[in-house]
Known about the structure:
This protein is mainly alpha-helical and about 300 residues long. Helix content is about 70%, strand content about 10%. The protein has helices spanning about 1-40, 45-70, 85-115, 120-150, 150-180, 185-215, 220-235, 265-285; strands spanning about 240-250, 250-260, 290-295. The protein has a three-stranded mixed sheet, with helices on one face. α1 (about 1-40) packs antiparallel against α4 (about 120-150).
Amino acid sequence: MAQTQTQSHTLISSKETRAMNISLFIGVLMLGIKWTAYYLTGSIAIFSDAMETIVHIAAVGFASYSLRVTYRPPDEDHHFGHDKISYFSAGLEGGLIILAAIVIIYTAVDKLIVGITLDKVTIGTSLTAFAGGVNALLGWFLVRTGKQQRSLIVTANGKHILTDAWTSFGAIIGLIIAQVTGLTWIDPLAALLFGGNIIFEGLKLIRSSADGLMDKTNSVLELKVRTGLDEFCKKNDISFHRLRMRESGQQIYADFHLQFHDGTPIEVCHAIATDAEQTIERLLLPTPVDVTSHLESTDHPPGHV
């Protein structure tokens, strides 16, 4: 069983690493395109889009490092492995997104006050539309890969890029409206709205990071395990209590107490407990899971929990 999980983990790591490498490569290309569009048009909405891409590249760099750390085996200082660094990665990306949003909002307010001149709107919007389309496809690919591999790092990066894509499309709409109507203040106003949305997305990433670090229970997985244990215990005429579960990156940890009738041989108890643990492992496939059971008698000593 341990060997099977190791091979699966290696495969998942390869898929995640490839996804992040693609993200970094495309991010650098999109950065060049967006800054060219901003240089040509002077649009603050496009500037906000380009700023978010800078954050994306910085976040991908740390995320790639986090992936390498995640797959390090447990050691003397980290008995449960290094999976939780994925939550730090998501939190950092959320913080960087919010920092970029603050710069965008500050610049937009400044341009609302002093005014803005737009130029070469057609080529600028064309470049931004191309970048937005590429990012939409990339974001979809990363989110799908992240969910399939239960990778918070890849999923967070994909959601960030999808936000980036929506910012691109919003920038195009704002820029066209400003050009057609002559109301150039619409462009920095659009950037303000994007800044607010980017802050919202950043806060969601930080919240998911905090939930992971605080070991928030996944109610869907808990119900699945609890139902499986109920069926198993009825079949074997035993009971269970004190089920606890937590997620650490891609790894799930579960432990529970099994109660046997007094006088049941320890060999029998151990065999049934092993079967219960393997049942939970099968229920949660293909996710790697570490299951621990505690054996006790039905009439356990007073004060025992």
